[in-house]
Structure formats: C-alpha cells, structure tokens
Amino acid sequence: MTFPCLCGGVRQMLNRILGRGFYPNDIDVCQRVFDQVCKEQQLDHSSPKAEAVAATLFSMFENGCSDETTLLEVFRKASPEKG
C-alpha cells in the first residue's frame, strides 16, 4: 500500500502506525482529513506544517477520535481564520 501524496516523513510515520493496527479504512479517513486540511490551510503536503498536521491527526486517531467529521472540525477550530 502506497500513499504518493504524503511526503517522506509522513509516509515513514504512516508505515510505523500501520504496524499498530490501522485498517485500510482508517488510513482512508486519515488521508481524506489530511488532504482537506492541507487544502483549506493551503499547505504543501511536504511542508513541516503538513507533517505536524499528519502527526496530530494520527495521534488523535490512535487515541479514539476516529470520526472523519470530528477530526476535520478539530483542525478547523484550531486553525486561524483566513482573510
């Protein structure tokens, strides 16, 4: 399983996490939230900020926040309003 849109550091993190019981559907949820957050915050997937988003996202997911809508709302509330 490969995730070409994720940068190297995030991909390595994902590989470590996959060994801890993430299912393909879990990864799909994380990927969609990651993509949406990067789009909304205008982040390049390879930026340090995007890697921080991915790390936070995976941590939240591992700690029980597995609902896609909730994950996205948390990131939207945490980010400053644009414009």
Describe the structure.
With 83 residues, the chain is mainly alpha-helical. The protein has a domain at 24-78. Helix content is 65%, strand content 0%. It has helices at residues 8-18, 24-40, 48-62, 68-78. Helix 1 packs parallel to helix 3.
Descriptive labels:
83 residues
Biggest β-sheet strands, sense, barrel: none
Radius of gyration: 12 Å
Give the overall silhouette: globular
Give the DSSP E fraction (strand runs of 2 or more residues): under 5%
Question: Helix content range of the residues, please?
Answer: 55-70%
Give helix and strand order, one letter per element, not per position: HHHH
Q: What is the count of DSSP helices, taking H or I runs of 4+ residues?
A: 4
The average pLDDT is: 77
Give the termini separation.
38 Å
Low-pLDDT residue intervals, each spanning 5 or more residues: none
**Helix/strand class:** mainly alpha
Number of strands: 0
Write a compact overview of the structure shown.
65% of the residues lie in helices and 0% in strands.
Walk me through the topology:
Layout: H1 8-18, H2 24-40, H3 48-62, H4 68-78
Helix pairs in contact: 1-3, 2-3, 2-4
